[in-house]
Design a protein that fits this description.
mainly alpha
Length: 139
């Protein structure tokens, strides 16, 4: 009986290798197995069996330690700060500018009133200004 020859391998090369992603449960299981390993070669066998590198264990241990430290940190009490509205800063700036412009306007009106009174006292006739609708702010 003649066995059929296996098909030749595909010569195409994958352009971009697929990056492996490990779930949190998988990482916890592997770290638990590593922590439970008793003899010196058990960790190496585990890494070969799972196709992992020692750097994976190092990074996962660091992440686990950071998460444990973060879990033990005291939590801030009280209501959480709400995210800032991006328009809030612009609104505050415009309000400050509005207050400054109102102060300038009041000073200018006082100066104009003073000039009118001085001209009345001295008997100087001021030229009449034509008032246009452009001075008014459309609401």
């Amino acid at each position: 009986m003649t066995a059929a020859a296996p098909p030749p391998p595909n010569p195409e090369v994958i352009q971009r290798p697929v990056r492996r992603h490990f779930t949190a449960a998988y990482k916890q299981r592997i770290l638990a197995e590593v922590d439970a390993a008793s003899d010196s070669g058990a960790i190496g066998r585990l890494l070969r069996r799972e196709g992992l590198y020692a750097s994976h264990l190092t990074n996962w241990r660091k992440a686990r330690g950071a998460a444990e430290r973060a879990a033990l940190e005291p939590k801030k009490r009280g209501p959480k700060a709400s995210p800032k509205n991006p328009l809030q800063a612009e609104n505050a700036k415009l309000k400050r500018e509005n207050v400054q412009l109102n102060k300038k306007l009041q000073r200018a009106e006082l100066i104009i009133d003073l000039q009118k009174k001085v001209s009345q006292i001295l008997g100087i006739a001021l030229p009449a200004l034509e008032e246009s609708g452009d001075d008014e702010v459309n609401s």
